[in-house]
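User: ok so my PI wants both of these folded by tonight, can you help

Assistant: No problem, let's get them done. Here's the first:
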Amino acid sequence: MDMENKTSDESLHNVIHVGGMYESWFLDYASYVILERAVPSLEDGLKPVQRRILHAMKEMDDGRFNKVANVIGQTMQYHPHGDASISDAIVNLGQKDLLIETQGNWGDVRTGDDAAAARYIEARLSKFALDVAFNPKTTSWQLSYDGRKNEPLALPMKFPLLLAQGAEGIAVGLSTKILPHNFCELIDASVKYLRGKKFELYPDFTTGGMVDVANYNDGKRGGKVRVRAHIEEKDKKTLLIKDVPYGVTTTQVMESIVKANDNGKIKIKKVVDNTAAVVEIEVQLAPGISPDITIDALYAFTDCEISISPNACVIVSDKPHFLTASDLLKSSADYTKDLLKQELEIKLAELQEKWHFTSLEKIFFEKQIYKELEQKHKDWEAVLVAIDKGFTPYKKQLKREITREDVVKLTEKPVRRIYRLDINELNEQIKGIEGEIKDVKGNLANLVDYTVSYYDNLLKKYGKGRERKTTIKTFDNIQVASVAIANTKIYVNREDGFIGTSLKKDEFVADCSDLDNIIVFRKDGKMLVTKVADKTFVGKDIIHIDVFRKNDERTTYNMIYVEGKTGVSYAKRFNVTGVTRDKEYELAHKGEKNSKVQYFSANPNGEAEVVTIKLSPNCSARNKEFDMFFETIAIKGRISMGNVVTKYPIRSVKFKEKGVSTLAGQKIWYDTETGRLNTEERGVYIGAFEGEDKIFVAFKNGTYELTNYDLTNRYESNDVVYIEKFNPEKIVTAIYFDADKKQFNVKRFRIETQTLNNKFLFIKEGTSNYLEMVTTHTQPVVLLKTGKKRSPEEEEIDLSEFVEITGWRTVGTRIAGDDLISAELLSEDEDPDPNEEGIVGGQGELF
């Protein structure tokens, strides 16, 4: 019994509770997933499965393509997981078009099409991979999972592969997302780092598109990039999406467009995928829909624009670390330099060994030490000792001791070597080896230069065709409420105080979108802003309701109210630029209980009308009827008291006469980075606009366009040559290239068309023709440079005298041959229009 009790007690002490098992086992599992599956290594930039694939392909490499199914089988000798994970990893590597050359249908990342089955597609290592990723002499090895074979701990990768390919993985409680970068830019940055210079790295995607890297923050965790597809305006009814953002397929883009249309965010007629060799998604617009606003809406509401947050997590010394793109590049460059150093040291040792044995061989034959083989020594050891003794006078010529192995190796030389021996040949070999040793030592002494030369050679061999595909651009911030189409209607019940989209039996107010806010003014002098909804109570006696535009500094509200405590009436003018939603604001002074609004008007351009005020007939005022001019009242804040109108009770206020705007023209700037108009003083000031004013824009392809000054207008900044406030009296002077005649022509004309948003070709038609210079200066004088760039000929020409004013359709007059280097505008207007002080392209230069 005692033994049984003792055994029972020991068993209790050895019990492991489930909680403890979970804690240790889960930690082991998490560590395994992080280190062995999901997160790449800093040294070679590879996940374990990728490293095993490349190692297996190197073992199979004979210069020919192998079936991917065979590669999978070879890799499974090293990879302890199923074939599906290997197959996916191979396809992923192949689609990156860097380490693996592919043959067959490998799918398409742009359309989301899958690769064909592994038995149908083939692969082999690229020449680039063979150059940068393999060297058994500098590779550290470990046993495979079953102990049968050796596999590399890390490949000797002499290139920043992790930044070139990018990486994505989800582990347990950890994830990584490293964006791909440009091949050529990575090499250039590596060289700059080795030279001690500053460098910058920005993502580049094989799918093309545009990227805004303002918040990339060097790829650090917490940074962000915005990626957009290029969208072109084919015509006023059709848009073409020319590529897809990184990580998004054409199918996803189309589905997001259809969804946005179904939700009423955009309005399209049809969307068609014409993708073949290049991406092209055709978006057909519904009648009356603006292409510019639709482009903004596509970026705002669909996958035509996405946001990506990088998270550069890598394995460093068997632990996950969060680094920056610069850290990754510096580490790669240092690793490459160290690998090249190891290769040079190995080569040096091999050359020194080769020099040693060649020198031994020369002495062995030249000094006839080989004749010891003909002597009758008592045994083989005695022969070896005799040969070693024969070298004694010459040992000082050598750089290391002669070993027994050296002597044995000499004796293994065939006898015919003696008869065919050429001592001069051995001397030449030794001389050549010494030259190689000198070169290797020189490279070791100048390791940075050697590494830079290595990178330069990589760029020369493999850089062609790997130029940047993604355009780096600053994106404009799209206000979603301003580009959402009017997909609903707002109604009001003024008496009961309800507004909403469901009150269809009540008074219609305006078309709006479900993202809009509504501003409401009540007779008690209170105002509030609320979001569009089915039905909202905002208070009784509504006197004005409209769609609210944030930061609107032009809509001016004119109001007359009576202050409840004193009975004095005041007039005020104010704007409402920003408020807290659903908060009531007092507009009548102090919000006294009996205060009320006697007159109210909303004026989109600050108009100041005239009203007739009639006082109560029982009051003691001498003049009981008079006119009040709102233009005499300054526009102030909404909390201002206003100007006293009268201390007597007012019987009525009636509109008498429409007033003119009291605001200056709306000042507008053109942002050359985003190609958008703005009132925030970004970019170049192009004028003050009001009424029917227009904008004149000239493009590289020789077309011009007249547009209104709506801030939603979009101009492709890379194509715009000239933009200014339109003046029909101005003469346009243009120089363009005529490819057919291989000459430059000049012409001067007035803008005769008045149609908005239509492009008119004002140079000779031809696919290779382009606009060199355009200006509206009154007396343009240009400096023409022709001939060779190093020693050009210069000539000043007054274009107003050189060519007459003709119609905009004329071909023009020859001014230079095809050897024109540049046309620089020298003249300036003596009395420029103060509203056009910042004309883009005003010097007649392409920007």
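One down. Here's the second:
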Amino acid sequence: MSPTTPEPAPVAVPEPRNTGAALELLVHGVGGTTPAEMLDDPRAVRVTGDGTAAVYRRATDLRAEGEPERFRDGPVPEAYCWSNLTSGNGTRALWLLLLPFMVVNLAHWMRPPAAGHGRSARLYGVLVRLVALSLTVLLTAAACEVALDLAAWQCAGAAACTEDRSWLGFLAASEGGWWSQPGRRLTVAAAIPTALVALLWYLSRRTWTAYEAQRPPRGEDEHDGRPALGRPGFWYGRRLVARLRAAHTAAGLLTVAAAVAGAAARHDRGADGTLPAALGRCIEGALAAGAVVVVVVVCRRGRSERRLDGRLDRTLTSWLPASSAALLLLAALYASWSRPGWRSSGALPGDAAFGVLTLGQGVLIVLLAAVAVRLHRRAPDPGTALHGLAGPAVAVLACALGGVMAGGVAQRVADLLDGPGTPGTGNGPIAGPPLLLSWQAAAIPVLLLLLLVPTALLAVRTALTARRLAPVVEAEYAGEAPDRIRTRRIAGIRAAAGLTDAAPVLVGLLAAATLLLGAGGVAGTWGTGTVPGEAFDGAPAFLDAAAEGCQALGSWLVGLGFLLFVTWGRRAYRDASARRTIGILWDVGTFWPRAAHPFAPPCYAERAVPDLAWRMASWTGRTGGRLVISGHSQGSVLAAAALWQLPHTTRRRIALLTYGSPLERLYGRWFPAYFGREPLAGLHREVHCWRNLWRRTDPIGGPVRLPAEGGKPEVDHPPLRDPVVYGRTHDHPLPEPILGHADYQADPAFARERAALLDRLPPALPLPVPQQRGTSPEEAGGSAPHGSSGRSSG
């Protein structure tokens, strides 16, 4: 519909016919809401579920299935609340540590469609999993850099650094104690990165039971032709997560062991003894073999979605971490062996390790981009974000986030230990962090400067669009007295809502600039051997000053970012509202299962989708009634995913009502293999009826762009007016708010479209005979009382 075309007058919809039992299953969107708000009744009672996710009804509707007169005026509403899956107790603040892991996990699901190109799809998955593995090594290496290099090796080995730090006294070389030898200092400091790896392993294992252990129902029509989200094993990835958890845990432990044993082995190779040198070579060889095994395990198996795979590779998942822990213990014993003449000086050779790791990430991402381009060219879709390169671009951002976190903590600790000196310049008691981290920090001001140009262009474009939309807005409210301020505000909100569609351009530019600057950082580190502020000594004054300014400003920005990160996490731990904000950010990122990184925040959809599928299947199977599942925002994505999991006979008794839905605008463009045009068109064909409500002022939701097909009408309703009334009237004496993404149910079109969907569903089967006294509420077609067992199905 053209923007200048006035919205047609609403078509009169007849009153809903009494065709038997009817249920409206409401699913909220990001940020969540309370059951009382969803049901518009303070007496909401939990029907089934637990404190994390549950279905609620109004107290008066608990036994509605046994009272047919309740369905004469419309469906009985039920509310599925899942907000506690992403925002709960204070431990959720720890999820901020997992942000790079979550982002790289998204890259896995951004693969272009691969129908008939299974090998390329598998290669894409392998490359993403290797990038994810590199992030685990990077985070562990950053912890080793802080604890082993900066604290135990550099500061504890310099009297000027330990004299004012009593907490390092027992490790200080100047004290000459038993722990003062470099190898023993490294062994003590290794407890910190080892504890970090153990914490990640624990979080991944614990959250599996709470979030991802719910098995989806088995459909009657399971076959290879089902869409990916409808496959039996899509929402049950236990086997893969367990394998990846074992591999990443082993990789972290092997990284710590290499940092501990590597320094001792280098010392022994330069000493006279042959036995310690041979032992060091054996340990390093064992660590290299362990690293090869980890890489093979990560590459060997991806997701198995075509069947519900309940197996668990117990030998692998227990043997691999245990062997790595044994190698770490052996490395600690080897490094702790007495070497009286050994002294620590300078820094541990971390530059080479960080440089190789960064270079490896760049190579993997370039290969990933080549595979993505190949897949996209075989089945091009103009609506796909970044022409199929969304996954590689997001993988770059994940690596950048990991680098910023690593560089931030290293820079802050180095600043604390170096006193008045500047880390990396040699004018303080310690040598400072690896040079590569300084080069990466210096690239941040350059990156921000480059982003100013597209940001300014977008701001200008938004202002021009708002000006162009002003007459369009007035034309849509023809017959009302124009108000310049009101018109300008409506047009401005519409124009700002369109910025969502510019996100792919910004992400692409940011990823390209980050990749180039990262390559420049590696080249600068290896080519100059010094920090950026000193690398340009002798160059023109402007260039020299720019390099020094970028290094100083970048170090400050990285440190500030790290402090803000810690502050936000601490506030989220103590403040429920802040924790809820973090949960909103996680609602989109953790919809997808952990397919690439096992330490990513848990996937709430592996709990929510089976919950919804079980509820719809059990209610329609028990009552034979009509069901409308109403999903707002992210809830519409959960609703669609749950419908794909249902058998064909059940889907034919269900109508889908979506509003404020990002199904096409966000998911269809960024995740085309799963929510692209073909999967959504298939859902339109398979579900009995589907209607989508949207507004032009909504920055998240939008049309799904599915035309009429097979006797079914177009999915999209014409865009809803927002605000409903332009100015003051007798019926609306106060200005109506511009709702944007919220309160779709307040629009009269919502009730009309819901009634129309119910009328199009086949009549309900006769209700069962009311049960006799003593029958449980579940058997009676009603509900378990508040505080019931908490099963995820009705």
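Residues 656 and 690 are 5 Å apart (CA to CA). The beta strands are 22-27, 44-49, 54-58, 76-81, 626-632, 654-659, 689-693. Good luck tonight!
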